[in-house]
Amino acid sequence: MNKLFSSISVEFKKLFHSKIPFITLLTFMLIPFIGGFFMFVLKHPDFAESLGFISTKAQIMGSADWPSYLSLLAQAISIGGLIIFGFIISWIFGREYADRTIKDLLALPLSRSTIVLAKFLTSFIWCLMLSLFVLLVGLLVGTMLDLPQGSKEIVTEGIIVFAVCATLTVLLSTPVALVASIGRGYLSPLGFMIFTLILAQIVAVAGYGAYFPWSIPAFASGADGNEAYIVEGISLIILLFTSAFGLLSTMLWWRLADQY
Q: Which Pfam families does the annotation name (predicted)?
């Protein structure tokens, strides 16, 4: 257990000595502010009328109230998180190959499973911290805008939906680690992320979003136009199976594949 904690500590040091935390934090910071901007446009029709095309786009988001705003945040983390979370985990795993430090890493007196698990836990913790940051900033922006329908029940429900969508999206990042390990770098996982994101949209439009793992978080957020729902049953099984497959397959790849 001490070796695992030490490995996680080292992974965090490598992470925070890079530009990844700053880039991902800056990128995610756009979510609550862009959502707040759309809410501001909807709340001030005179200002919206002068913007023309932007006003029309804002109306797609719904009305200027807490339910619409929190739903927008959940949808953004479900869709945007597939790319940002995947980018984080592809860097954590792919950098060892790109920087050619994989040989030095595997020469350490640590089991390969411990190294992989430390990388996964580091990426999960940072992704969840980013999600919490988005939520807190989002609540602050919503409060500053003085959005209506901000009852305790509505806000609590919105927070729960956001937390569920963020957690599910983070869990779906494990197959990216497998692709990064097999592809030995960044390019393959980036292509995989784009492919799954596009396919998720197509499957959702076809009406099977509840059965395709990368569509499930967005489906749960209500991005398909229906009300948000808590994932359960076959959808939850499919998503957890996909996450477990990515994690276990990555561990097996690092243990059994020739890394040299």
A: ABC2_membrane_4
Which residue type is seen at 92?
A: I
User: Is a pLDDT exceeding 90 seen at residue 175?
Assistant: yes
Residues in Cβ contact with 224 at an 8 Å cutoff, skipping those fewer than 6 apart: 204, 209, 218
Confidence tier at 102 by pLDDT (50, 70, 90): confident
Who contacts 232 (Cβ-Cβ below 8 Å, separation ≥6)?
none
Contact between 80 and 107 under an 8 Å Cβ cutoff? The reply is: no
Map residue 168 onto helix, strand or coil: helix
Tell me the three state secondary structure of residue 206.
coil
CA angle 205, 194, 127 (to 5 degrees): 100
Q: Could you give the residue ranges of the DSSP H alpha helices within the chain? A: 2-16, 20-43, 45-51, 53-59, 66-98, 102-106, 112-145, 152-171, 174-183, 187-205, 216-221, 233-256
Give Cβ neighbours of residue 164 (< 8 Å, ≥ 6 apart). 220, 230, 231
Write the DSSP symbol of residue 214. Answer: G
Give me 229's structure tokens: 């729902």
**DSSP assignment, residue 215?**
G
* pLDDT in the model for residue 178: 93
Residue whose tokens read 């995610």: 28
* pLDDT greater than 80 at residue 53: no
Report in angstroms the alpha-carbon separations of 138 from 71, 187, 196: 11, 32, 27
Cβ neighbours around 88 below 10 Å, total: 25
Q: Please state, in angstroms and rounded to a whole number, the distance separating the CA atoms of residues 191 and 62.
A: 33
